[in-house]
Amino acid sequence: MELALPPKVTERAFSRIAEITEDAEAKCLRVAVEGGGCSGFQYDIKLDNPTDEDLVIERDGIKVLVDPVSLPFLSNAVIDYSEELIGARFVIDNPNATSSCGCGTSFSI
User: Fold this and answer.
1) Domain that holds residue 103
2) What is the SS3 assignment for 74?
3) Does residue 65 lie within any of the structural domains?
4) Is 17 within 8 Å of 85 (Cβ atoms)?
5) Which residue of 10, 26, 33, 94 is most buried, as measured by CB atoms within 10 A?
C-alpha cells in the first residue's frame, strides 16, 4: 500500500479559515471523506476541534484537520478557497478522484 501524502492547503484557504474561525467556537477546518453523494464519496467540510488521531496541517496557528480514515482519499490533494460569481466555497483538487459530479462535493475513485 502506498504511503498517503497529506493534502496541501493553499494560502488563500488558510486566509479564509482565519476569517471564519475568528469568532467561532471551533477554531479548525475539518476536511473529511464520507460514503454517499452522487458519485460514491463526498467531502464533508466543517468547523471542528482536533482529536488525538487527526492529522493537523498548520500555518500561523490556523489548522486544517484530516481524520485517519479520510487521509488516503485526500492523499496529495490540494485544498483551496474559490470565490466565483456562483458563490464562494472551499474546493478540493483531488488527484485520486477518477470522476466527480457537477456540484464539486462528490467524487469516485
Assistant:
1) 8-108
2) helix
3) yes
4) no
5) 33
Residue 77 lies in a domain: yes
- Measured distance CA(60)–CA(79) in Å, rounded: 17
Report the SS3 class of residue 33.
strand
pLDDT, tens digit (0-9, with 9 covering 90-100), for 20-70? 998 888 889 999 998 775 657 888 999 999 999 999 999 999 999 999 999
* 37 vs 108: CA distance, rounded Å: 9
Would 3 be classed as within a structural domain? no
Q: Domain for residue 1, yes or no?
A: no
Which CATH number is 17's domain given? 2.60.300.12
Instruction: Give the cell for residue 12.
Output: 488563500
Please choose, from the candidates 44, 67, 71, the residue with its C-alpha nearest in 3D space to the C-alpha of residue 54: 67
* Residue where the block lists cell 501524502: 5
**Do residues 6 and 55 make contact, with C-beta atoms less than 8 angstroms apart?**
yes
Contacts of 109 (CB under 8 A, 6+ apart): 40, 41, 73, 96, 97, 98
